[in-house]
Structures are given as C-alpha cells and as structure tokens.
Task: inverse folding
C-alpha cells in the first residue's frame, strides 16, 4: 500500500504527471466481444517496450470487486483475471517483455502488516454478519419483506501464498500465457516472465529487482520504455528509485472527495457523513443487473515527475555538485518519514497536514550545510539524517499544537454542516408534507388526461417526447401477479433476464401485440412507465402508460409489485450497509494524550509503550534504535532488495522525532536470514477464521487447547484508533509472532503433509515464455532437443542468454519436465470456462536471474532524455501549492495566522493574464517572472539542473544572493529564505548570530528574537525548564533581548518590483 494519501498529494501538487489512457473502442458482434488487435499501433501514440504487472493489484478487484456483483465461483474470478490482463495489455501493447509477478512470501517486516489486515478483516466480517442477523430479526418481527439469506461471503484472505486458490490460479495463468502467445498476434514477439506465489518476495519488489539487475548488465538498451501496473502508492517511489527516465505507471483512475461519491450508498455529490440513506435513482427499470462500466485508467509519468522534482528540489550555490539523481534518492527517503508498509509514521508528521511540503523545505534549507546528500545508492548517512531529525524535533511541539487547532476548526465546521444539513432535511419534509395534501382525485384526473393525450398522439401517428424519468420496457408475456414476495422475485428475475438480453436495436425492431410494424423510435413499440418515487416516506405511486393491449391492467399490477419488491430489497441492502458504516464509525474518544499541552511525551510513552520516560530511558533509546534500523532496512529494500528476511519493527508505534538523537551511534546492522515457507507464512498471518485453507494438522494448531502457539490466534483483540475516526484506520494490537516457536512447532506436523500440500509449501522458480520462432524460443528449443528425459532436464546446466540477443533480458534458461512444448495440446480445467489449445506455439523454460550486482543510481550512458513537457506556469503553480489549507511551519515566514489568499490563479488563468497584459518591452522582461526556455539538451549529466528551463524560473529568480554560513557549537546554520505566500515578492530573511554561550535568533519580519541554550552534545534547546529535553518539547522558545542592532537593511533581500507600464512599453 505504501504511503497513505501519497498518490493524492502527488497528483494534486504535480498535476501534469497524470494523463488519461486512451483505450481502443470495443467491438461487439452478436453479443460477443471481438478481441482487440494489439499488434496495431498504440492508440496513446507511444510505443512501449516492457509491461510489468503487480498481479495482486488486479487479482483482488477481480475476486471481490467493490462496484460489481460478486463472482459466483472461483472459476469466474480467474476468468475475470484473464480479461483484466487482456485489457491492460491492450492499452499498453508492449513490444518486448511482459513481466507478471504475484506476491510470494513477504519479508517478516511486511508479514506483520499482513497479519494485522487479515485479522482485522476476519473481525469485521464477523461483526458485519452479527449486525445483519440483528437487523434481519428486527425486520422479521415487524413483518417487513426480506431478501433471501445469502451464503457465506467469500474469504479473500485466501489470496495469500500457499492456499489452494493461489495454486489453482497459478496453473490457470500458465495456460493463459500459452494461449495468448499462440493466438494473439500482439503477443507473438513478446517474452513473458511469470513469477508466481511460490517465488519469495512481494510482486512489485520482484519487478523492481529485475529492472535494477537488468540495467546493470551489458547489452541493456538504456532507452527502453517501461510501464508498470499496480495500485500501491509505493510504486511511485520504487519507479523513481530505478533511475529509468522512460517510466510510466498505469492504474485505475482514482476519484477523491465528492468525485468519488459516498461509500455508503455509492452515489456522487455528497460524503458518507451527509448520506441520508436514499436509494439510487435508476436510469432504467431493474438496472441493478445492468453491466457496470469498466473504470477508466490513467498514466502517471515518472519522466514528468522528474521534471517537477528537478525544479522544486533544486538548491543554488551548493558547496558540492548538485545531482538530480542523488536528490531523487533523498526525496524517496524523506517520503518514508510520513509512513510506509513497514514502519509507523512519526507522530508529528501527517501527509494530510502538509508534512511532505514541510520536509522538502527543510531539506532544501539544510542541504548546503550537510556536506553531501542523505543517501548513496540505498545506504543512509545517519549523521546527516540526524541533523534533519534535530530540526523536526525542534519544530515538533508547534506542529502538534497546529494539528490541535486544525482539528478544533474542523470539528466546529462539521458541527455547523450537520446543523445545516438537518435544517435542509426538515424543510424538505415540510415541503413534501404540503405536496401530499393534493387529493387522490386530482392525481387520477391527471393520469387519465395523460393517457388520453397519448392515445390521441398514437391515433394521428404523432411521436411522443420521452421524458427523462420514463422507463422503457418491452410488453410481452408478462407473468401473472403472484400472492407473495417470492413470486414477485421470480417474476422480476424473469423480466430482468429478458430485458438484459434485448439490445436497444432489437427492442426498436421488435413487433408488438397488435401486429403492426413499428417505426425505428423505440417509444412507439414499447410501454412507458412513469415513476414518482418518494424515498423519504417509502411510498411509490406508479403511473404506467402502455400501448393499447388487452392485458395492460394486469401488467400494471405486476410491474407495481415487482418494483415494490425490488425497492424493499434495495432498502434492506442499503440499511445494512448504513448500519455497518455507523458501526465502523467510532464515537470521538476523550483525548488523553493532549499533544497540545505540556507533558505530552510522558503521556504518549506511558499510554502507547507502557514506559516511564525517566525510569525507562534505555527502553526509549532502544525504540529509537529500532526505528533508525527500520529506516535503513526500508531504504535498502527499495534500492538493493531484501537485506534481511527476519527483521521487523517490534513496536506498534513510532518514537518522537526529538527522541531520534545521535542516531549515527546506533548499531543498525542487518542479518540476511531466509524467508518463511508458504505454509509457515500462512500460519503467521492468517486468523483462525481463515484456517479452512490450511492442511488439517496446521489448522488444529490454531484452535487446539494444548497448542503451544494458540495465543498467536486471538479471536478478540484490542484496536487503538490513535486519534483516527474510522475503525479501519485503527492500530491493531496483535501480539507479535515468536518466529522460533512457530517454526519449531510446525516442524512437528510437517511430516503429515501429502504431496499436494508439500508442493504448495515449496519454493518455485520464475519461468520465461515466448513464441517458438522467437530468437530466445530457438535457444529454448535447443535445450529440449539436447535434454529429453526428466533426469537430464533436472541436471541440465542450462544456457546463458545475453541482453543483446534476447532484446534486453539477461539470465540463464533451464528446461523442466512439465513444460508445454510446441505442437502439444494444452488444456485448462476451469469448470464452465474450460478450454483446450490443440496446437501450442509457445515454449517455456526456467528463468534464473543473474547474480546480484550493485544498483547504478544514475542515468545510463546513451540515455536520451525526452524533451521537457512542463511550462513555466506549471512550475509556478507548484510553489504556491498548499495541501489541506495548512500553513507551513518549518522555515515559515508566518503572517496572517496561516490564512491563505482568498483567490489565486490556476495555470490557465496565468496564461490568460499574460495574454491580456501589455507587451513587455524587452526579451528579458518577458521571462522575468516565468523563466526563459533554454535550448534542449539531452546529456544525462546535466539534465537535472536544466529541467527544460534555466535558473531564472519564477520560483528561483527572486532569491537573494548567496548566504553566508555561520558556525556555533559544532553546528552550521545558514540564512533561511523561502517564499512566504503566493506573492513572489514576499520573503523573510533569518540569520543566526554566534555568541559564546547562547545563540540569538532574529526574525526580520516579526522583529523579535529568541534565545537558545547550548549543551555539551552540540545541540540547542530552549532556555526555559530544568530538563532540557522536557523544555524543548513542551515550552515555547523563551524571548531574548537581542545584543546589538539588527542587520542593516542593505543585508536584507529586496523584493523585485514589476516595472511601470510605461517602462514595459
């Protein structure tokens, strides 16, 4: 999952990175979809070389979709996976390589998160079932109609390595690859590498490890165009870490806020908090069976993101060479501070509160003083990171106070919104009550009048306009009215089946009962039903208008009952969903930590860790050491692969940044270890409720009273909202698995496994598939001609393939006995989706990756960087970006209590304003504020400094001259300057002056100074308070009378003014 909210922050701050995918229009003939010819040119006008599929990102929505009906069987789920891959392949159309990676056994650090999610999912499923039973009993007592009881929900916890479902899926995908290479011309020249769930490692990390190792080999084409599919936000960081400039991420379009709609009723235009529980207005009668439209896709361009980062992260006058590739690595590392899959985020940093923007400002201000970058090829320089944590720690008290103020404002706003919503609802009820006073006689007269008007129109052959609320149905053999709800349901099912099988064209041409051939307008051949639906009172009145027919009155009655039954079922489903949402919405708990008050650190460590800060000082230092070790582990994982399969962060919460001190003194070494086996991981992450996918002997260990590991599988466990609003956001307080005890216990029952279970518990290999006529396919065919028996295949040394021969893929190929050879028959046993491939043209072999080498964190020689696509206004819009209305605290100039300008121009508005302004008098004036385009240069050594424009971009031009560096107590400080608001002329200048025993901090904008005490450890703390650590965290900086006059105005940065209009002319 990566960093929560990171994708939203990125796509809103850097909007040009996202573009819509153009998908070829689907052609359907006689109800059968015609396959897209993927050998044709890409409709997106870009030809891609490699496509990588993080398979778990598509397996989950295919097996338990959120916006579509649940598949009826596992066979249908697997068929959905085939269709989903076809769709992505058709959008990207790779020409060289398709890499399909399913999550295998994860490192222990990720297993803890998987365990929390799966236990929480089982708990929520149990609570939902209990709540639904409670509602069903209440409705039954009230005599309200109920839908039939559904079977048990499909347990999606089985999408985990080692389960029978994953084994079935893996076997089916091997057939799928053989079939597509044989029958689809777009696959004919593509090599397919398939890594299933038996190969250890997360899918996205297996993909990135492959790319890192391939680009370090001779013969690798440096200008390959890569596309990776996946929904995890950490794919963005992983893609940046490859240092491949031609990289794109494809994912389903994500809607935010009201664009996405209410997750209670599924409708757009309001949030769940404002949901009134109304049923959705249907576009067609019984449209719940209508096929749901596929979600659109988006491209996220890493090359455009690199342009944005080259602009925003550029720092002038560094004492060392500025290198975009090194800065990108540091950016990836900073993103870990706000959360990832392996470490909890620091308490004072929330991405929703603008933490990443603050970190970027802090990084740019401190970089000139660090002597170098924070990271180097995945290795972290802890002494430099220590400076960053020191500054965050100094700002931590005010960050937490700012959060409290924002939460209070949000709370008052929500209360006001709730009052407004309630008043609107009351007014609407009063209005409806008044309209209900209209007599039934008036309604009947209007109904008869409308019918007579329609009959007159039909008599003269007129064409009636179709009103938006009218539903078109086809009259025919409507079943007679039943006497019970079940009969209505049966009739509804029959009607739905016939409606869904009639296309609009067929409906227009279908004859009616009177035998007359109708015109092409479907309204003249169908009955129209007008519905006036009042969901507040749950009253519906049908005003059915049908063509003359002997059974029209019976049909009216049947349709009325059918609609009433459907409405009851919709009401029940929505009622249950609303009740579950309310169950997951936890009422506000009392704020016992009170981060905005003094002593918050004592309260935090006592509540979250059970430690007293004074008595358990060594334990808190150990927490900081483990967190620092985790930061190093994560960075290495992203750049060099898993460096320790056994390491994990042994706490549920993170320390404060102010307690991450002297981290360069910590022992953060890692031991590689080895991954769990698939069944061992299942025992480490699954709850007892999902034990059905385990072998019987393993299953008993979860529930047997004398099991030595019974305490690993609690049915009831605590969850901590930790300041959040929804139950799914809570911290799951499960006990951590004792790895040694678990593995020792499993060894006692392992001999009971049968052959099939042993195969599921084994470690597998990657496989390479290609057409037998491909250059690599010829190499593989030679292997099978040389090694014909199973024993020879198993003992084969294989053959090496180089990148220049295999079009960029380097590794070793080995034959295996179960390979489907050319001209052989390949079958798929998948129930109603079973198929047979009579003449296979694909060939496959085991693929062994080359020996690991160090990742090259730079652009490769020969790389041709694409021409920049960003314009000056794109960069200027980034500098004014503020997420969630928060005020930047780190190095902020203050002013206006953080209030943002009430109006600002978008990039389009900037262009319009430029066009309307008088013509500037000189070429230099034209680019004074928005930068001058430079001549494009594609050298991989200076790409970062240019980013398509010179250093006079709008967010660079007004900067003051080079700052002087001052030194005190072993720490270096520099002038701090930055943009204070959207006004490019508003800046503040801050300077530290050095004294023997204390530092003076002078703020030119506020005209005040603050004093700090210096301690022997070289750090600076506020004067107030006997305990320097406590005073640093819980008190404001003590005011201090400045020594001597402030710097004269000549030393202050002077804002640039626009020349008068006469000068511009």
Result:
């Amino acid at each position: 999952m990566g960093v929560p909210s990171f994708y939203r922050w990125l796509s809103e701050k850097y909007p040009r990175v996202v573009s819509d995918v153009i998908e070829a229009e689907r052609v359907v003939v006689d109800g059968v979809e015609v396959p897209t010819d993927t050998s044709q040119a890409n409709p997106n006008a870009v030809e891609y070389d490699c496509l990588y599929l993080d398979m778990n990102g598509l397996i989950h929505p295919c097996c338990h979709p959120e916006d579509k009906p649940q598949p009826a069987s596992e066979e249908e789920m697997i068929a959905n996976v085939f269709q989903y891959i076809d769709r992505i392949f058709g959008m990207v159309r790779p020409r060289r390589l398709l890499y399909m990676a399913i999550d295998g056994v994860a490192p222990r650090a990720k297993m803890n998160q998987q365990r929390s999610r799966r236990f929480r999912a089982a708990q929520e499923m149990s609570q939902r079932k209990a709540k639904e039973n409670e509602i069903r009993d209440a409705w039954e007592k009230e005599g309200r109609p109920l839908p039939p009881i559904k079977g048990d929900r499909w347990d999606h916890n089985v999408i985990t390595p080692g389960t029978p479902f994953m084994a079935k899926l893996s076997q089916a995908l091997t057939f799928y690859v053989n079939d597509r290479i044989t029958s689809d011309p777009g696959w004919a020249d593509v090599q397919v590498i398939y890594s299933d769930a038996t190969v250890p490692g997360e899918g996205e990390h297996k993909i990135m490890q492959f790319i890192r190792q391939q680009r370090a080999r001779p013969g690798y084409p440096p200008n390959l165009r890569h596309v990776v599919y996946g929904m995890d936000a950490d794919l963005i960081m992983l893609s940046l870490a490859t240092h491949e400039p031609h990289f794109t991420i494809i994912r389903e379009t994500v809607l935010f806020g009201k664009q996405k709609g209410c997750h209670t009723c599924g409708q757009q235009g309001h949030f769940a908090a404002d949901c009134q529980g109304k049923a959705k207005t249907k576009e067609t009668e019984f449209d719940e069976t209508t096929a749901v439209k596929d979600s659109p896709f988006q491209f996220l361009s890493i090359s455009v993101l690199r342009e944005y980062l080259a602009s925003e992260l550029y720092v002038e006058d560094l004492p060392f060479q500025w290198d975009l590739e090194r800065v990108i690595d540091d950016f990836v590392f900073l993103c870990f501070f706000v959360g990832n899959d392996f470490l909890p985020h620091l308490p004072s940093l929330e991405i929703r509160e603008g933490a990443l923007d603050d970190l970027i400002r802090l990084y740019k201000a401190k970089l000139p003083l660090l002597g170098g970058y924070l990271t180097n090829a995945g290795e972290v320089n802890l002494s430099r990171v220590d400076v960053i944590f020191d500054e965050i720690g100094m700002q931590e008290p005010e960050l937490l106070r700012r959060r409290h103020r924002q939460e209070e404002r949000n709370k008052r706003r929500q209360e006001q919104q709730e009052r407004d919503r309630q008043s609107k609802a009351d007014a609407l009820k009063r209005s409806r009550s008044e309209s209900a006073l209209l007599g039934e006689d008036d309604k009947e007269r209007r109904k008869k009048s409308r019918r007579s008007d329609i009959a007159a129109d039909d008599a003269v052959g007129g064409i009636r306009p179709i009103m938006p609320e009218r539903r078109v149905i086809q009259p025919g053999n409507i079943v007679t009215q039943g006497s019970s709800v079940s009969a209505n349901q049966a009739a509804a099912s029959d009607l739905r089946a016939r409606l869904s099988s009639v296309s609009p064209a067929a409906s227009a041409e279908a004859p009616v009962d009177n035998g007359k051939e109708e015109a092409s307008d479907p309204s003249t051949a169908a009955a129209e039903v007008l519905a006036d639906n009042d969901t507040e009172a749950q009253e519906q009145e049908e005003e059915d208008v049908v063509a003359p027919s002997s059974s029209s009155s019976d049909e009216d009655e049947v349709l009325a009952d059918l609609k009433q039954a459907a409405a009851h079922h919709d009401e029940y489903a929505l009622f249950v969903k609303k009740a579950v949402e309310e169950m997951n919405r936890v009422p506000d708990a009392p704020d016992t930590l009170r981060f905005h008050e003094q002593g918050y650190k004592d309260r935090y460590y006592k509540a979250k860790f059970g430690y007293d800060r004074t008595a358990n000082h060594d334990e808190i230092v150990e927490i900081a050491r483990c967190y620092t070790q985790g930061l190093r582990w994560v960075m290495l994982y992203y750049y060099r692969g898993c460096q320790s399969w056994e390491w994990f962060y042994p706490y549920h919460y993170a320390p404060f940044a102010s307690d991450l001190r002297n981290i360069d003194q910590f022992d953060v070494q890692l031991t590689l270890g080895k991954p769990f086996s698939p069944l061992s991981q299942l025992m480490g992450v699954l709850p007892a409720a999902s034990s059905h996918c385990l072998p019987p002997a393993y299953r008993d260990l979860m529930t047997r009273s004398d099991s030595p590991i019974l305490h690993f599988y609690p049915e009831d466990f605590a969850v901590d909202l930790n300041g959040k609003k929804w139950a799914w956001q809570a911290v799951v307080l499960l006990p951590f698995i004792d790895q040694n005890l678990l593995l020792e216990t499993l060894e006692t029952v392992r001999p009971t496994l049968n052959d099939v279970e042993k195969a599921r518990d084994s470690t597998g290999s990657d496989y390479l598939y290609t057409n037998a006529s491909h250059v690599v396919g010829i190499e593989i065919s030679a292997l099978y001609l040389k090694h014909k028996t199973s024993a020879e295949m198993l003992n084969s040394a294989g053959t090496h393939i180089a990148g220049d021969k295999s079009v960029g893929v380097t590794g070793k190929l080995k034959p295996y006995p179960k390979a489907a050879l050319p001209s052989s028959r390949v079958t798929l046993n998948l129930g109603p989706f079973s198929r047979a491939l009579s003449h296979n043209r694909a060939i496959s072999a085991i693929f062994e990756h080359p020996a690991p080498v160090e990742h090259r964190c730079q652009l490769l020689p020969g790389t041709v960087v694409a021409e920049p696509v960003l314009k000056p206004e794109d960069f200027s819009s980034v500098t004014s970006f503020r997420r969630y209305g928060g005020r930047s605290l780190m190095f902020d100039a203050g002013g206006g209590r953080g209030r943002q300008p009430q109006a600002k121009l978008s990039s389009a508005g900037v262009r319009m304003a430029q066009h309307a302004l008088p013509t500037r008098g000189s070429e230099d004036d034209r680019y004074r504020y928005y930068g001058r385009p430079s001549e494009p240069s594609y050298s991989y050594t200076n790409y970062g400094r240019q980013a398509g424009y010179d250093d006079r971009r709008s967010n660079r031009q007004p900067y003051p001259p080079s700052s002087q560096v001052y030194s005190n107590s072993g720490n270096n400080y520099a002038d701090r300057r930055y943009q204070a608001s959207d006004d490019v002329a508003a800046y503040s200048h801050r300077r530290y002056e050095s004294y023997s025993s204390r530092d003076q901090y002078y703020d030119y904008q506020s005209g005040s100074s603050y004093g700090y005490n210096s301690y022997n450890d070289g750090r600076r703390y506020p004067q107030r308070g006997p305990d320097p650590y406590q005073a640093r965290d819980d008190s404001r900086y003590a005011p201090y009378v400045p020594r001597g006059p402030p710097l004269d105005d000549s030393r202050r940065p002077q804002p640039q003014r626009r020349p008068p209009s006469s000068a511009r002319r």
